[in-house]
Specification:
The protein is an all-alpha fold and 137 residues long. It is 43% helix and 3% strand.
């Protein structure tokens, strides 16, 4: 079994110096000939100044540059799935479909509805017909 190395004053000073220089726990462990866990434990017990995790620093470095929001022009020919999201629909507005729902020019009428109906007066006339109006018997 390998003999455990003792933490001498000289090794502790070297640990503190390397820590202050910003070396990683693994790098310090390599230089002192001990595991990274031994370094982490000793740093904790000595109460040395905490440092940011290199993992969290990477995430912050990417998020740090804040720029003004870019104004994106809305293209006229959005994919249909995105174009349909722009349609404003309300039960208080006429829901008579206008145009081909497979195209980006599709929309609803949007006029004020007749009470109790889903359509405006004009579209109610088109939607609700009787046999008499069609000339049937």
């Amino acid at each position: 079994m390998a003999e455990a190395q003792q933490w001498t004053e000289e090794r502790l000073e070297k640990l503190k110096k390397l820590w202050d220089e910003g070396l990683s726990i693994s790098q310090i462990g390599e230089q002192l000939g001990v595991s990274r866990n031994a370094i982490a434990g000793k740093v904790h017990r000595l109460g040395l100044k905490k440092r940011q995790s290199p993992i969290s620093n990477k995430g912050k470095a990417k998020a740090a540059p804040k720029k003004e929001p870019v104004q994106v022009a809305v293209p006229e020919n959005l994919p249909l799935k995105l174009a349909l999201r722009k349609i404003n629909w309300s039960r208080a507005k006429c829901s008579w479909p206008i145009g081909d729902p497979k195209t980006t020019s599709f929309k609803f009428c949007g006029d004020e509805v007749v009470a109790g109906k889903p359509y405006c007066n004009t579209h109610c006339f088109d939607a609700y017909t009787t046999n008499r109006e069609q000339g049937g018997s």
